[in-house]
Write a structure and sequence with these properties.
Layout: H1 5-21, H2 25-31, E1 37-42, H3 49-52, E2 60-65, H4 75-87, E3 92-98, H5 102-109, H6 116-129, H7 131-135, H8 140-160, H9 163-170, E4 176-182, E5 189-196, H10 202-210
């Protein structure tokens, strides 16, 4: 009952399959990683970052948490961003949410789930900020998906406002921050029309991304 031999067997089969394609793949991978991308996504098991963008191990640096939140007091997330930007020199940071997110749904309904309620408070802040957009949607599934989109947009802005990213731009480093969302029902990634490549672009990109939503409030 306590063993997971089937997972170990799966691993061996996977490793053999990779080596059949490239006999030196793991040797080369062990020497260094040089990804161009940092992925900040949800912990949901249905959203495997590398696979949905067709990248191999070593090509995508990944941070995941419940509902893909970027909070300025979260040293875990900030440390990942700092390492990716300052050490790995990634050129793109992708904030990716997904439709049907359980954390987003819980925040929308104000469900009480336990300790995680404190984390989902960040999502509830997004919900309250965009209450005018959300309150006009009567279908709960559509309202949840809209909050999934709005959350990605807000977290993309949060990434662009971290000191790590702003310092990188100030020193002329090539770096863009993107907001995407993934469809569980069709496996397709969608660009949420927000891409920020310098500090001065942040509010313009934010306004542009929100402009496609009816009843949006003007950004502060």
């Amino acid at each position: 009952m306590g063993t997971l031999d089937h997972l170990l067997q799966n691993n061996r089969a996977w490793a053999e399959g990779i080596k059949a394609q490239d006999s030196e793949f793991f040797l080369k991978l062990s020497h260094q990683q040089s990804p161009n991308y940092l992925w900040i996504g949800c912990s949901d098991s249905r959203v495997p970052a590398n696979q949905i963008v067709g990248l191999l191990p070593g090509e995508l640096f990944v941070h995941r948490n419940v509902s893909n939140v970027v909070e300025h007091t979260d040293l875990n997330c900030l440390s990942v961003i700092q390492f990716a930007v300052d050490v790995l020199k990634v050129k793109h940071i992708i904030v990716c949410g997904h439709y049907g997110c359980g954390g987003i749904r819980a925040a929308l309904r104000s469900d009480r789930l336990g300790l995680i309620d404190n984390w989902l408070r960040h999502i509830q802040n997004v919900r309250q900020k965009h209450e005018k957009i959300l309150s006009s949607i009567t279908d709960e599934t559509i309202r949840c998906d809209r909050l999934c989109e709005l959350n990605v947009i807000e977290q993309t802005v949060n990434v662009s406002q971290t000191t790590v990213v702003r310092d990188a731009w100030d020193r002329g480093q090539e770096l863009s921050v993107h907001g995407w969302i993934y469809g569980l029902q069709d496996g397709i990634l969608r660009d949420l029309n927000i891409c920020i490549s310098r500090s001065d672009d942040t509010m313009l990109a934010y306004s542009r991304a929100l402009s496609r939503f009816p009843n949006q409030e003007p950004p502060d």
